[in-house]
Design a protein that fits this description.
Elements: H1 5-18, H2 26-82, H3 85-88, H4 93-127, H5 129-132, H6 137-181, H7 186-255, H8 259-284, H9 291-305, H10 313-323, H11 329-337, E1 343-348, E2 355-360, H12 362-365
Antiparallel strand pairs: 1-2
Helix pairs in contact: 2-4, 6-7, 7-8
Length: 369
């Protein structure tokens, strides 16, 4: 019995140490020792059950933390919408001050929860680092495709939001036109004309912004299609090289060569695949799209230059968050991947300590241009 086990095992230990075991009572003591041994199996089963409960508790905590972070994002979005000029002008000075304080406090709590959630995910990634070390080039290309698809979906969402805002402005213009057709005093008519002119200018600006968003969405779609074509080309080339390697190994075995030639052929094959990937990356790497990207490249280059051993993307993102809270880790990583002659990614550590780090390599890359 679990409730009486500690007391019973103490009594049994006292009897054995006191010398109660003799030829007459040996069988009885053997059965009691056997019972103690069977309790070991029960303890191991209890340990396994507790470990399973701990894993379930961790998963439940992570899900709850994700839900809290989502609600924080929604609250911050409400504060950001309140600080826009359309609503901001109607608040008093004291109300604006309170809203600004609440917004900053919510952003700090959101960032803290986000870092905690990323820490949990990093621990899970470190546990799965052995599986990540065996990634092949086609898997990395699939990751690039998913990132481009996520950006295209975000641009589409922003495009829809701008279109709805444009419809709202059009409705306001129609209402102002109807009100203008009625009889007003000259002063009121002048005020309505000014509002109408302001709304027309705002609508023109929204239309231009909508066109730019649509153009950027089309560019992202073309990049996604180009990445898919390059992935297909790389997979076909890898298959051909593997067949050539197999034929070369069979020829080497027939001719009686040693395994060093086969290893040299394997190294050459990997080098050709990497070279082809670098060429494809250079072909699809567009130029700088805005002055903001140039500023980001300068800041990231300065940061990585003082970190000669490299830095992971989470460390770099936490530093950039202090300068611009709206920037995301995905945006930083996509910018680094577009410039392979300035930034390169390396793997450090072994097993559970495996880590992906980015390094500044422009001084070596300019020699190969």
């Amino acid at each position: 019995d679990d409730s009486k086990f500690s007391e019973a095992i103490t009594v049994l230990l006292t009897w054995i140490e006191r010398g109660e075991v003799n030829r007459r009572s040996a069988n009885q003591f053997y059965s009691m020792v056997q019972s103690a041994n069977s309790h070991v199996r029960r303890l191991m089963n209890e340990k396994a059950a507790h470990e399973q409960e701990m894993e379930q508790a961790k998963e439940s905590f992570k899900n709850a933390l994700t839900g809290i972070l989502t609600q924080f994002e929604q609250i911050v979005a409400v504060f950001n919408a309140s600080t826009r000029q359309k609503a901001w002008d109607h608040f008093s000075k004291a109300q604006r001050k309170n809203i600004d304080i609440w917004r900053k406090h919510s952003e700090e709590l959101r960032n803290a929860h986000s870092e905690q959630l990323m820490g949990i995910r990093r621990e899970e990634e470190m546990e799965m680092s052995d599986d990540d070390s065996g990634d092949n080039p086609s898997k990395k290309l699939r990751v690039d495709d998913s990132a481009l698809a996520a950006q295209a979906y975000a641009l589409k969402e922003e495009n829809d939001s701008l279109r709805w805002q444009l419809d709202a402005y059009r409705n306001e213009v129609e209402l102002l036109k109807q009100e203008k057709g009625q009889h007003f005093r000259p002063e009121e008519s002048l005020t309505k004309d000014q509002q109408l002119q302001f709304l027309q200018q705002t609508m023109q600006g929204m239309q231009q912004q909508l066109l730019s968003i649509q153009e950027e969405l089309n560019n992202k779609k073309s990049e996604l299609e180009q990445a898919k074509e390059e992935q297909t080309h790389t997979q076909a080339m890898l298959k051909v090289l593997q067949e050539q390697l197999k034929n070369a190994k069979e020829l080497a075995e027939i001719n009686g060569h040693d395994e060093s030639q086969a290893n040299e052929i394997n190294v050459l094959t990997v080098a050709l695949v990497n070279q082809d990937r670098e060429k494809n990356t250079e072909k699809r790497s567009p130029g700088l799209k805005s002055e903001k990207e140039a500023l980001l490249i300068g800041i990231i280059s300065t940061f990585l230059h003082v970190h000669p051993f490299g830095a992971n993307i989470e460390y770099l993102w936490s530093y950039m968050q202090q300068l611009d809270s709206r920037i995301s880790a995905n945006e930083i990583e996509m910018l680094l991947m577009r410039l392979p002659r300035m930034f390169k990614q390396e793997f450090t550590g072994v097993g559970a300590t495996l880590e992906k780090r980015w390094k500044f390599c422009a001084f070596e890359g300019i020699k190969t241009v």
